[in-house]
Amino acid sequence: MRKRPASSGARWIAGGWKLLKTRPGLVIGSVLLMYLLIFLTSFLPLIGIGVGYLIAPILAGGVIAIFARIAEILERGEEEPLAREQPIGFDLLFSQFSAEAPWRALLGLGGVTILVNLAILLLLATFLTIVLPEGGMAELTAPEATDSERLTELLPLLTSGAALGLWLVVIVIYSLYLAAMLFAVPRVVLAGDSLRMALSASFRAVWLNWLPMLIFGLIWLALFVTAPLTAGLSLILLLPWAWAALYAAYVSIFPVMSEQSPAETSMS
Description:
Blueprint lengths: L7 H15 L1 H18 L6 H30 L25 H29 L4 H5 L6 H12 L5 H18 L2 H8 L3 H14 L1 H15 L10 H19 L8 H5 L2
């Protein structure tokens, strides 16, 4: 992996904008469709949230395949101007569901997300079991208790000094999880990594490039906090742009030589 100077964070975002403006309808449409499909799975009884976690990396792999295809066309277009007119279909969004695609590793990434969230819930439940008075947990889970009553009882406990250690542990767990997952999907789709290799490569990339990643994250945080000012409408642009910038960051950090070509990826 190549380490980049601190300004790379801004260049990654500029690279994402270049991808977005090349095929705005395709990029915005595919990313929003991905989120819509994940949202719709939450309505499945009993298993909805779990199914959403599992299919999210597979759909994200399709988004990465779309960016790889756009990048290939941009590169070819420098020598073959007509290449820029080549069509790219929304079917690439579902390309990682095919038998030839690495869907098992992507499914495993969804499983990692489920396990991390279950671990956090277990920590929270253990903490509440310790700090709640006798019978307190039964009162919280009672069918007749309202959400406002539960919140009134939980809020003082979760904001107390005793909860500080809990939140520090949660922050550490999620930080490690995000570092391991950030580039895991493109590592599986573009580099053919196994689940373990993808998580390890992503974590190492974030660790070695922590300064440009910090700048990258702060810029996006500043952009996303403006969403309430537009009633969330700016997310229609910001979310696809964020995914495009993530792809730009990925190809900047990882050596291109060891990876499949975008053309091979798009045919997966």
